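dumping this here before i forget
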Amino acid sequence: MNFNLQSLHNWYRTLLQNPKYRWWVVGASIVYLVSPIDLIPDFIPFAGLLDDTLIISLLVAEVSQVAKTKLQSKSTRWNTEKADVATQVIDVQPIPAD
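structure:
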């Protein structure tokens, strides 16, 4: 079985994009960051913070991408609704004088 960083990144991204697992992955990432048990222990000078930095950067990048996509879809939907309202013709009739 081949293991590479790109496949791990793709797996993480796929889980974050799935609404069913998104908050579980965010929660698990935060627990991993505050946990004293790491893949590379934090007391090792440079390498100890490397895995935490990698998780933080992946989490921020992917969550911001998900948020951007959601905001764009809401903006598109809002602009579509606004365009629908703008294209409706309003028939205004004068009120007859008595």
